[in-house]
C-alpha cells in the first residue's frame, strides 16, 4: 500500500511540475509575443510618419536640442528633421490631429497648443532636452543708470505659465498687441500690473528697444511689457530676431532688453557666449519646458520607443 501510495504521489508531483514549467514557458512566450507586437506597432507608427520629426525655425534652441537628440538616440538613426516656421509646424500638427494620424513635433510650454489639443511630451531618458526651465529677463549694461524706471519695471516683471497661455489663446483670435492690451487692462490682472509700476515716475516719450524670438510665448511677454512701458510714457520698439541674435543684441547694446531667454538649456549656448556682457535680472516665468511632443492618442511614451529607419 505504501509503495503504491508513494508512487502515485511521485506521479502527481511530476505532473504538477510539468504543468508549472509548461505554464511558465507559456508566460514567456506570451511576453515575447507582446514585445514583438509592441515593436511592430512602433515600427509601423515610425514608418507611417516617414521617420520624420516636424520642427520649427532652424535657429531655435529646441532645434539645436533636437539635432543633439538625433545624435544621442541610436533608435533615431536615419530619421529626418524637417525645420520650418512655427506656423507651418502648427499647421502640420492640426492636420495630423484632425485625422488622428501619428506625428512627432518639437514642442514647448507654455503654449496654446496644449490648451487646443490633447498632447503629451515623450519621455527623454537621456535628458537631452533638460528639465523644467525658466524664462529670464536680460538688459544691457548701464540700463539702470540710463532708464532707472524702465529697469525697475523689467526687474519686477513676473507672471505664471497660465497667464501666458491665456494670452496666447486670445491672440489666436486677434493681434498680440490687442490681446496684451486686454490682459493688462483686465480686472484680474490690474493688481499685479500695478505692482510692476508702483511708485515709479512717468517719462515723456523715452525710447526703449526690446528684442524677442518669434515664438508666441515671447510675443506674449514682449507685448505685455510693451503695453506696461507705454502706459508709463515710453516709446517702445519690439524687434523679433533669431535666438542666436537676441542675446547678442542686448550684449552689444543694440537692444535695451529681452524677456525671452529660456534657461538653462534652450538658449544656454547663446547665453554662455555673451555671459558677463549684459545683466541678468532673473526669471520672469518658471515652469517652461521643451521636448518632443505627440498627440495623446498615440500609444507611445518615450523617445526610445521610436524605431530606427535603417
From TrEMBL:
What's the main place this protein lives?
Answer: membrane
A GO cellular-component term linked to this record: ATP-binding cassette (ABC) transporter complex
Which locations, inside or outside the cell, does it occupy?
Answer: Cell membrane
**Heme recorded as keyword:** no
Name recorded for this polypeptide: Glycine/betaine ABC transporter
Gene source species: Aquibacillus halophilus
Which processes are annotated in GO (biological process)? Answer: choline transport; glycine betaine transport
SUPFAM superfamilies from the xrefs? Periplasmic binding protein-like II (SSF53850)
Q: What molecular functions are annotated in GO for this chain?
A: amine transmembrane transporter activity; carnitine transmembrane transporter activity
Recite the UniProt keywords alphabetically.
Answer: Cell membrane, Membrane, Signal, Transport
Signal peptide interval: 1-26
**Where is each ABC-type glycine betaine transport system substrate-binding domain found?**
44-185, 207-308
Claim: tRNA processing is one of the keywords in the record? no
Q: Which Pfam families match?
A: OpuAC
Amino acid at each position: 500500500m505504501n509503495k503504491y501510495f508513494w508512487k502515485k504521489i511521485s506521479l502527481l508531483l511530476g505532473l504538477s511540475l510539468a504543468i508549472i514549467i509548461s505554464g511558465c514557458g507559456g508566460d514567456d512566450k506570451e511576453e515575447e509575443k507582446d514585445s514583438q507586437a509592441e515593436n511592430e506597432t512602433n515600427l509601423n507608427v515610425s514608418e507611417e510618419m516617414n521617420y520624420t520629426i516636424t520642427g520649427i525655425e532652424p535657429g531655435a534652441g529646441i532645434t539645436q536640442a533636437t539635432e543633439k537628440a538625433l545624435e544621442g538616440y541610436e533608435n533615431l538613426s536615419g530619421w529626418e528633421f524637417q525645420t520650418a516656421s512655427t506656423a507651418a509646424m502648427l499647421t502640420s500638427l492640426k492636420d495630423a490631429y484632425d485625422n488622428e494620424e501619428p506625428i512627432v513635433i518639437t514642442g514647448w510650454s507654455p503654449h496654446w497648443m496644449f490648451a487646443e489639443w490633447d498632447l503629451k511630451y515623450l519621455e527623454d531618458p537621456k535628458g537631452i532636452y533638460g528639465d523644467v526651465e525658466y524664462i529670464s529677463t536680460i538688459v544691457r549694461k548701464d540700463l539702470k543708470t540710463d532708464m532707472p524706471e524702465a529697469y525697475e519695471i523689467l526687474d519686477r516683471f513676473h507672471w505664471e505659465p497660465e497667464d501666458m497661455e491665456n494670452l496666447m489663446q486670445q491672440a489666436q483670435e486677434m493681434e498680440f498687441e490687442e490681446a496684451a492690451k486686454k490682459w493688462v487692462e483686465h480686472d484680474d490682472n490690474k493688481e499685479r500690473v500695478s505692482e510692476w509700476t508702483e511708485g515709479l515716475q512717468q517719462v515723456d516719450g523715452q525710447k526703449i528697444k526690446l528684442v524677442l524670438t518669434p515664438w508666441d510665448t515671447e510675443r506674449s511677454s514682449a507685448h505685455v511689457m510693451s503695453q506696461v512701458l507705454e502706459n508709463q510714457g515710453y516709446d517702445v520698439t519690439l524687434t523679433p530676431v533669431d535666438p542666436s541674435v537676441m542675446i547678442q543684441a542686448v550684449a552689444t547694446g543694440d537692444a535695451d532688453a529681452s524677456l525671452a531667454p529660456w534657461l538653462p538649456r534652450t538658449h544656454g549656448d547663446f547665453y554662455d557666449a555673451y555671459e558677463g556682457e549684459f545683466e541678468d535680472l532673473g526669471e520672469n516665468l518658471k515652469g517652461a519646458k521643451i521636448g518632443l511632443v505627440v498627440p495623446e492618442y498615440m500609444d507611445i511614451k518615450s523617445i526610445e520607443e521610436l524605431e530606427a529607419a535603417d
